[in-house]
Design goal:
The protein has 186 residues and is α+β, with helices and mostly antiparallel strands. 13% of the residues lie in helices and 31% in strands. The protein has one domain: VC0467-like (3-Layer(aba) Sandwich), CATH 3.40.1740. It contains 4 helices and 10 strands. Strands 1, 2, 3, 4, 5, 6, 7, 8, 9 and 10 form a 10-stranded mixed β-sheet that branches. The longest helix is centred in the middle third of the chain and has 8 residues.
Length: 186
């Protein structure tokens, strides 16, 4: 299964991006939304006219190796592709750590970049430890102008600073899709 990689809107390099505002938002426990319940989302303001982000804690059952069947060396990896959000679910985005700003990526926070560049992802996957400091997502999250602000004001989300160690932590992972409760109430 090979998904098409899309181009990031607007910015083509980390230096071309608007001034950064990136935060982590965590869904309140009572939020019963099939896409965002139990989710932590990295949200950025520098990708378009309204906030855009990726859910960072929702691994899918899909192994990274299935996305890239031509890269035989990935078959040994157990890493999963993450659900980034319900927008453009067929697109592939990725977050990765880098010491200096790479081409075709947008700075998310200190030392972390977001991209959808097929060429850049290919180079990252050719490294000795391809998944170190790399997380791959299907789809992304997005809100209309003012929508996220209204959700925050309503108390749907808790805000936190975007930190690299939190973004790449394996704690608090909630599979997507979420396991279904039995229908008979047992």
């Amino acid at each position: 299964m090979l998904l098409a990689l899309c181009a990031l809107p607007r910015a083509t390099s980390a230096e071309d991006a608007r001034p950064l505002t990136a935060i982590l938002i965590t869904a309140r426990a009572e939020l019963r939304d099939p896409f965002f319940g139990d989710s932590v989302v990295l949200v950025m303001n520098n990708l378009g006219p309204a906030p855009v982000g990726v859910v960072i804690n929702r691994p899918t059952p899909l192994p990274v190796a299935r996305l890239f069947p031509d890269l035989k060396r990935l078959a040994e990896l157990h890493d999963r592709v993450y659900f980034g959000g319900p927008v453009e679910f067929g697109s592939v985005w990725f977050l990765f750590r880098a010491a200096k700003p790479p081409e075709h990526a947008v700075r998310a926070c200190e030392g972390v970049y977001l991209s959808a560049s097929r060429e850049l992802l290919g180079r990252l996957l050719e490294r000795d430890k391809p998944m170190d400091g790399l997380r791959i997502f299907m789809g992304h999250s997005g809100w209309g102008p003012g929508q996220l602000e209204a959700e925050i004001a309503r108390g749907d989300w808790k805000l936190a600073r975007a930190e690299p160690d939190v973004i790449f932590s394996n704690k608090s992972e909630h599979p997507w899709p979420a396991p279904q409760a039995p229908k008979d109430g047992t």
